[in-house]
Design a protein that fits this description.
The chain is an alpha/beta fold. 34% of the residues lie in helices and 13% in strands. It has an eight-stranded parallel beta sheet with strand order 4-3-5-10-9-6-7-8, sandwiched between helices.
Amino acid sequence: MESEDQVMGDSDVAITNGHSEGLRLDNDDTASESAFHEESEPSVIEDTIALLRVRRGLLPTGCCYDDRMKLHMNADFSPNTHHPEDPRRIHEIFKAFKKMGLVYTGPESELPRIMKDCPTKYMWRIPARPATREEICLAHSPEHLAWVESLDTISTAELRELTRRFDQGRESLYVGSMSYPAALLSVGGAIDTCKCVVTEQVKNAFAVIRPPGHHAEFDQPMGFCFFNNVPVAIRVCQQDYPEQCRKVLVLDWDVHHGNGTQNIFYQDPNVLYISIHVYQNGMFYPGKPPNPMTPDGGIEHCGTGPGLGKNINIGWHDQGMGDGEYMAAFQKIVMPIAKEFNPDLVVISAGFDAAEGDELGGCFVTPACYAHMTHMLMSLADGKVAVCLEGGYNLQAISSSAVAVARTLMGEPPPKLALPKINKEAARTLAKVQAYHAPYWECMRSGIVDVPDVQSLNANRLHDVIRNAQRQVMQSKHGMIPLYIQRELISKSFENQVLVTPNLHNAQKIIVIIHDPPQLLAQLDVIDTTVDAHNSWVVDGVMEYIDWAVSENFGVMDINVPAYVTHEEDIDSYIPEFNEKEIQEQIQSLVCYLWDNFLQLYETDEIILLGVGNAYLGVKVLLINRDCREKIAGIVNFVTGNLRPVKSDTDNELSSWYKENSRVYVAGDHACWSDPDLTRKVHRRRFGTVVRSKMFGLNHMMREHAEEAHEWIKRRVTNAEGDTTEEEKS
């Protein structure tokens, strides 16, 4: 049975030259853990390591841990719950290592024999020692070092006041009388862990250290961090081993952006910093820096000067990301760029607060995913990988995740991993990251368009070209002409997007088609991903309905709702579709304008609404925002995306009317059919008369149900024989 930690007061220990005096941690299963290889026969172990360097795969995995790092604790001894950056974090990880048999716990006398017979059976202990002033100043200002050092001399009352002042907002830091020596040990542990990997004393290593470091800036502490452990360790290795350690990859998978690490290396061409984090448009911690000239974790910040292209931010739009998103980031961005960079050393800033179960991070990365990411990184730099602990605040999640990483480092294959579908917005983020870094990395250029260069050649976006072509076809076939939208905010957006048949105002029956742009299909060249016109197609299922409507003497108003409105200043090679809010604002403004200025003024009361794709939102906003039921004879919708409920706070009969006067075809693979509860919900009145189609995709659905929809529409209008007005006959 595991014993509880003893209470550790500020005066329990004094650290001198890396050794503890008066340390009282009795009955603690990780107490007084020295690096036991120091107490064993050094000549036997050193000789064994020297022989194993010939075959790096037989070298042991290193592990740096020191109980004294737990002595950094909050000076506020109130009955409040533990601070998230809890001393138990490293205790629980190391306890898990021992429980899983990764760390040797037997008699010291047996260690030389074990190291000789089976050197990879256990992790080889790397001692932690305090970093020197000279080492720390390789990545921090002397003034910053002096401030942290001063914590060693001030009173408990002053420490509490500092904690009260700093442990909020962006600083987010607590201090204690042992914070400075613990921070020195944390940096020193990171340094010697990286050194052991670079000099091949171990094949790879895991530094179980705290306080963490990646938020600490060159000249200030923040975010639970005093010194930035990883940059100091890298600078020491580059200085001491310039031939073996010139180029270094830092992969930071902590859920928070490593602002300090980024800014320290922002102009360094020899350090590639890649951070995968939650960004939330700059709202997620650490947020926007006070100085607007300082880069944050946005994907557009790529480094500067000689370091341009060496800073890669994969900033998720929100929390909730998991294995699918992280594996996609590795496969699409991290590994291709890392291989092109070809580092001499890989350092993982291993925060485990993106792990499933960590409430602060709010993400769902599993231990298996951490194992797979580690395994991929081990294919770089001849396997020289150093893992340095950063954040992670759920003790169970951080322990199981760290064990998965350690097992992989020791040579165990990663466990089987079933990947869920990637979040669509996350996929767009990865596409944007690729576009931002295409100028700097050959592997990122495939399929990326240099928009400024293309625009200089008088190029047009294809959706504008297609709509112009549609206009010409419909004008030639049916005499349709553009309807000018006299509203400043949307007139430019919908230029040529609304086409009408001649004499629409005199038509006895009208069909208003609100639809998405045509579908584009292309077969890319497998060599260079170029697109040839003869290998591309435009699929427009709406045209068949227009032809039919004209043949049945309907007046037609064709409304093409573009997924994006072209702006001359656009330079992004990939632009996502409008989000829900933007789509609704555009469509509502348009359909209400068309109703107020045209449709409601016409004499006919036999108007059919046909909604296709996401644009069928226009049907909903028209019904809710205008009293138009008396003039509408029926509604047909084709849906593959969100189902739109039609419900009004002022018209209690609207949902019932919609149910009785609509036909809503929903794709056979729609999510609503996968859950019985959802299926029951979509048959409620506010969703209309829902019909499950056996087809997938808008164009297939429209073709499959064309005859059925045509007959239904004809039954909804009294003028079913196709009579025309006297003016039309003339």
